[in-house]
Amino acid sequence: MNSRIIESLSRIGAAIHESRQRARTRAELARLSDRQLADIGISRSDIPAVAARGRHY
User: Largest CB tally within 10 Å, which of 9, 15, 37, 55?
Assistant: First the structure.
């Protein structure tokens, strides 16, 4: 029982961390100019997908 609670809390913590990381990535990419985004091979409309997938985009 205790291990299930610990496992659940661990998953919740990981989900919160992932969510914050996606938000940071979206914000950082949104600050770039369209030219800078093009230089790294993405468009402004790609930002949500890039943030969701991380470096696996």
Answer: 37
